[in-house]
From TrEMBL:
Coiled-coil zones: none
GO molecular function: nucleic acid binding
Protein name: DUF4268 domain-containing protein
Superkingdom per UniProt: Bacteria
Residue span, DUF4268 domain: 223-357
Species per Swiss-Prot/TrEMBL record: Campylobacter lari
Pfam family, one: DUF4268
Length: 363
């Protein structure tokens, strides 16, 4: 690594150091650097635990546990100047321990790590999903990342063989430098090399797509489709025109137009509740807030007719909503008749109440 001198149009070599020379330790330094900035490993990762040792029947402990954007667990094992000869076996062993973790196990582990923070909100933010029920932590594949300044031949040989057997393992070489009493760290993926990494990702994506095709009717989607079918059949029986041309969906929502282009009525089916709503989204955040505010000017009058509506301007987000909901164990089919009656009855009333105010909106 070199420092560029613009004035002299030259470069100066930085002194390559060892972690030992700089008195950096694995747990206090390297592990903390990665935990605080996991993107140094070339992708967005969410650290969910450090120094993890919660395994039945063993006191073994590994360095960092993370989630990737696909909902896979990532075991990160750090070494300093020397990888040692057993790091591959250690990491594979830890991955095998983690392979049995369910979504609830992973939630518990993360809750212990972040203490009093809202774990659902953080997971939704990481995965870019609004509804927590859609957060996908299936732990179908456990990944391994090994970090060290130098890797022994027996380690690189074993890693390359395991990659060929379909395991997702990466090796990152970390090199500390010093210049004018300042320290620098270079992080470089060395296994697999970039060309091989692209190939592996393509093959993994192909396999994931095939798995999605083979498992297209996952349990959650089946439940939703069955529920929407039942609800829409009841709507047809009652000649409720608003949703008469809507098809069932595997999503947790179905929607119908309100007559005003930027507002739509929605039925929402979550695991722990159902709701009706007016969803406002013109793709323009400022316009959405104006529409919401115009409706909210009539809040008192509207609430006199329809009590307990929840008005959500959602300033931090683009869209807005006005909703009415009730808690249920929605996946328990014995609740469905009551849920459907609640949703249809209140949606009919909601449409009648909101329609004149929606029609008055002018932008």
């Amino acid at each position: 690594m070199y420092k560029i001198n613009k004035l002299e149009n030259s470069i100066t070599k930085l002194a390559e150091k060892t972690f030992k020379e700089l008195e950096f330790t694995e747990r206090k330094h390297l592990q903390e650097w990665i935990a605080k900035n996991p993107s140094c490993l070339g992708e967005d990762l969410l650290i969910i635990q450090k120094e993890f040792d919660d395994f039945d029947g063993t006191k073994e402990r590994f360095d960092l546990l993370a989630l990737d954007k696909e909902g896979n667990l990532v075991i990160i094992e750090n070494k300093l100047d020397d990888s040692g000869k057993d790091v591959t076996w250690q990491a594979v062993k830890y991955a095998s321990y983690c392979s049995t973790f369910s979504k609830s196990d992973i939630e518990r582990i993360y809750i212990e790590y972040i203490k009093n923070e809202n774990y659902k909100e953080k997971l939704c933010d990481f995965f870019g999903i609004e509804n927590y029920d859609d957060v996908k932590i299936e732990n179908q594949q456990q990944r391994i990342i090994l970090v060290a300044a130098n890797f022994r031949k027996e380690v690189t040989s074993a890693v390359l063989w395991l990659i060929n057997q379909g395991l997702y393992i990466q090796c990152f070489k970390v090199t500390p430098y010093e210049f004018n009493q300042e320290c620098f760290l270079n992080v470089e993926q060395i296994i697999p090399i970039k060309e091989a990494q692209d190939y592996i990702i393509k093959m993994a994506k192909k396999e994931q797509e095939q798995n999605l095709i083979n498992n297209s009717e996952k349990q959650r989607h089946i439940i939703r489709l069955n529920f929407w079918n039942k609800l829409l059949n009841k709507i047809k029986e009652e000649n409720f025109e608003l949703f008469s041309n809507i098809s069932p969906s595997k999503d947790n929502w179905i929607a119908a137009r309100s007559g005003f282009g930027f507002c739509q009525y929605g039925f929402i089916f979550n695991k722990d509740c159902v709701r009706i709503e007016l969803y406002i989204d013109s793709k323009d955040k400022d316009k959405n807030k104006i529409i919401f505010d115009k409706l909210k000017e009539n809040e008192k009058e509207i609430n006199n007719t329809f009590e307990n509506l929840i008005w959500e301007r959602l300033d931090e987000k683009r869209a807005c909503r006005i909703k009415f909901e009730k808690e249920y164990d929605s996946y328990d089919e014995t609740n469905w008749n009551e849920m459907i009656d609640f949703m249809i009855e209140n949606m009919k009333k909601f449409e009648i109440v909101m329609k004149p105010y929606i029609q008055k909106i002018k932008l």
